[in-house]
Write the structure tokens for this entry.
Amino acid sequence: MRTLILVLSVVAAALAAPAWKPFRSAQAHFSGVFPSAPKASQSQTDSPIGAVTTQIFTSQAPVGSYSVAYTELPGAAVRFASDKVVSDAREGILQDAGAQQRSWTPINGGYELGYASPKKQGWSQIFLVGNRLYILDARVKPGTDKGRWVLPFFAKFASQ
């Protein structure tokens, strides 16, 4: 009986919302919270506006992964094609996740994308701040409580 209680306690602790850890990147001009210390990486993409470099900060939790991607865009891309930049970001997220769009909602200064695949559900927030594109992405197991496992990640994000 004690073993069962111990196992249930360990499982309950693993499913409890994370103790969100503050993070700030001066180079990527943002602050926020992650469930664990994020690992930084970069990717380079060829695009119609030329090669762009994206910095990605990724953190893992028992229910899934969390990332903030930051791209400094050429001014012309933002001035003349901001809608295209945002729609390309949305399509890239869906393709990368192998998911179908569930929702697309304007939010304060950007958009929130909801999506799902058979093994994951996710939400992304996409913001253009000046020439900077930010994509916040939370991919979690189906049925995960968005209020505990996703909303704090989004709510504490701030561009600087």
